[in-house]
Specification:
single chain, alpha/beta, Rossmann fold, 7-stranded parallel sheet, 5-stranded parallel sheet
């Protein structure tokens, strides 16, 4: 079979050459690319007549997949699958498998880092000292003792909870189902409205689905404390971005930190969050660490090997 990896995945040529030798020994061909190209026509060309393709979060809509007539398996080097036309894949019998778990530590650590950055004004005061100024009257806030509402208690949400408890926070949670592991940590599940009302920090860890799309909008933001902070390292569409920017600029909430948006960065300079008050923005880096990318490569190509073994 022909196997193609459409992008570098952060693992480098030496590992790709090892993988190429591995698949050649198994009687397959393996092609890889050391640059990332999100153009639809180029993605269709790269996958071409391959039976197996590896891709991360580059969109694969129907019009791309229709040009890949031999495709039978997609190993997705990403946790979410909302960038893949899953309906078309089901129609064609193309199996799709994600790389769950590779970025749990990376995302949970960034979520905590963002909370601390916004509360202690780290990024803002870096700019202050570079302007030749001192602290002035700035006072930060500590994470210890704060009530943090965790929305979504899957693997990442649960990892965030464990870190928050280690920092001395009081944690409450919202999820469509109750998890015994989370309850065993002493965390109370609350209705979403109540969680928003009592939390000093709200952190999002839900997938992008029809149910979660826009789950944090103007009405939900108005339920939050005026001193509260919103952190989104989940998926951009979970929040009404314009509503968040307005809430920041009008003092409905005190701060926010976003790593995800309604589209992949780069963002236009006119994007509402870039000019919103007290909003920390990063270019979708939560999942991107040396350690997580190494783990991701292992998961992704183990999945390919397992599929090949099943398909003999």
């Amino acid at each position: 079979m022909k196997i193609v990896c459409t992008e570098p995945l952060g693992i480098g040529k030496p590992l790709f050459e090892n993988l190429k030798s591995h698949y050649m020994q198994l009687g397959h061909s393996f092609q890889y690319y050391l640059d990332r190209n999100e153009d639809s026509a180029e993605m269709a060309r790269r996958i071409g007549d391959a039976e197996v393709a590896v891709v991360s979060n580059i969109k694969l809509p129907r019009e791309v997949l229709e040009k890949c007539p031999n495709l039978r398996y997609l190993s997705i080097a990403f946790t979410g699958l909302d960038h893949i036309d899953l309906d078309y894949c089901r129609e064609r019998g193309i199996e799709v498998q994600n790389a769950a778990g590779y970025s749990t530590t990376a995302v949970s650590e960034l979520a905590l880092a963002m909370m601390i950055d916004v509360m202690r004004q780290i990024t803002a005061t870096d700019g202050t000292i570079r302007q030749g100024k001192g602290r002035g009257a700035m006072l930060g806030r500590e994470l210890r003792g704060k009530t943090v509402g965790v929305i979504g208690t899957g693997a990442i949400g649960t990892a965030v909870i464990r870190l928050l408890l280690a920092f001395g926070c009081h944690v409450v949670a919202y999820n469509r189902s109750v998890h015994d592991e989370v309850l065993s940590l002493g965390v109370e599940y609350l209705p979403l409205e109540k969680l928003l009302e009592v939390s000093d920090i709200v952190t999002l860890h839900v997938p992008a689905t029809a149910e979660t799309n826009g789950m944090i909008g103007s009405e939900q933001l108005k339920r939050m404390k005026p001193t509260a902070i919103l952190v989104n390292t989940a998926r951009g569409p979970v929040c009404d971005i314009a509503a968040v920017a307005e809430a920041l600029n009008t003092g409905v909430i005190a701060g926010a930190a976003f790593d995800v948006y309604e589209k992949e960065p780069p963002l236009e300079s006119s994007h509402p969050l870039l000019s919103a008050q007290n909003c920390l923005c990063t270019p979708h880096i939560a999942f991107a660490t040396e350690e997580s990318f190494a783990e991701r490569a292992t998961i992704v190509f183990n999945h390919v090997d397992e599929w090949l073994a099943r398909s003999r």
